[in-house]
Amino acid sequence: SREWHLVRRPKGWPVPEDFALREVPVPELGEGQVLVRNLFMTVDPYMRGRMDERESYIPPFQLDQPMDGGAVGRVVASRAEGVEVGDHLLHRLGWREYAVVDAAHAVKVAPEAASLSAYLGVLGMPGMTAYAGLLDVASFKEGDSVFVSGAAGAVGSIVGQIAKLKGASRVIGSAGSDEKVRVLLEDYGFDAAFNYKNGPVGEQLKKAAPEGIDVYFDNVGGDHLEAALDALKLHGRVTICGMISQYNATERPSGPGNLVQILAKRLRVQGMIVSDHDVLRPQFVEEVGGWIRSGELVVRETVYEGIDRAVDAFLGLLRGENTGKMIVKLAD
Ligand code: NDP
Q: Enoyl reductase (ER) domain: which residues (predicted)?
């Protein structure tokens, strides 16, 4: 079985030489374990943080060890009660072709209920982040005007669509290409959208939301956050979900120069980590699952094929090569 190891901690932007695809023997199964042929694995922005050696909410990857992350696969051997060969499992041992998984740390997923990769995207961690970050953290309510950055990505595209479905007065998104802007407007039903590479974010946001915004869902940080602080209305709310513009920074980035807006406009700015919001999961599965079945929620993915392309997919994610969730397909 092949698996990806981190062989060097990246300095700034990761490069292919920081990783190695290695052939390893598949270990024997212990009691309570299953052997899973991974079919899909996810690459996510938070994995960049795990490549650094530092304290965080999740431990760093170890050098010369397999990386891990979400994956969905098919059980090919089982020593666990209640799990049969042929079952499909969502588990945390991605970045490898075959995984020996403790059945207690995996959940069964139904291939007929949704496409298997959806459990890594809209029905999984990113979807849950969008749902909890908008409805819980930002206390979204009907009539709010919402701005989301990283809007064509896995989390952002769901944030914008949930806001529309829940009665937002206006939904504005930013993304890094004209084609993504077209997708936001035509496929996801955003009211306004702009390419942040086409001009200063502040000016473009002002044009897109002349009356200001009630909620900012931040996936990007930096100049996007600064622009949003200017555009927010009195008692506006901000979800700090991600700051991807800074994940490869080699020096401490400078902060927005307009933090006084938080004071003047009595803003509420709150960080989030999705795993804190597990109590919302049943409600999330029911509501978002319903929107997928009814076709009200449009879901897109960018799929790279083959274990050997997993690092390309991760590097591509950081460069914005994905529209919707970035997925690696390992087998049929
Ligand atoms: P995406 O699918 O949005 O992929 C990342 C996107 O980030 C790229 O497609 C790219 O799109 C954009 N990007 C890259 N560099 C920059 C930059 N310098 N400025 C602006 N945009 C940039 O990933 P996810 O949906 O999985 O994650 C989105 C954000 O949410 C990330 O910040 C992530 O860390 C965060 N997150 C936080 C969680 C939490 O619990 N707090 C959980 C899950 C995700 P473009 O072409 O538009 O530049």
A: 14-328
Regarding the beta carbon of 176 and ligand 1, being less than 6 Å apart is answered yes
- Give burial (CB, 10 Å; 0-12/13-18/19+) of 90: buried
User: Would the CB of 44 count as within 6 Å of ligand 1?
Assistant: yes
Task: Verify whether ligand 1 is closer than 6 Å to residue 129 (CB atom).
Answer: yes
Q: Which residue has the tokens 């309570």?
A: 32
Is 144 in contact with 169 (CB distance < 8 Å)? yes
| Strand 170-175 versus strand 145-148 pairing type | parallel
- Kindly report, residue by residue over 177-198, the tens digit of the pLDDT: 999 999 999 999 999 999 999 9
Exposure of 189 by Cβ count < 10 A (0-12 exposed, 13-18 middle, 19+ buried)?
A: middle
pLDDT tens-place string over residues 211-232 = 999 999 999 999 999 999 999 9
Same domain membership, residue 232 and residue 261: yes
Give the list of residues 6+ apart from residue 279 with CB closer than 8 angstroms, or none: none
- Which atom of ligand 1 is least distant from the CA of 129? 42
Q: Which of 244, 254, 270 is nearest to 44 (CA)?
A: 244
Helix (H, G, I), strand (E, B) or coil at 38: strand
Give the chain's domain count: 2
Domain of residue 8 covers: 2-118+300-329
Indicate the residue among 275, 292, 314 that finishes a domain.
275
* Beta carbons of 298 and 188 less than 8 angstroms apart: yes
Token pair for residue 117?
């990769």
- Helix or strand run (H / E) with residue 213: strand 213-218
Residues in the chain: 332
pTM of the model: 0.98
Token pair 């052997």 in the structure block, residue: 35
Using DSSP's 3-state secondary structure scheme, residue 75 falls into strand
Determine, yes or no, domain membership for 295: no
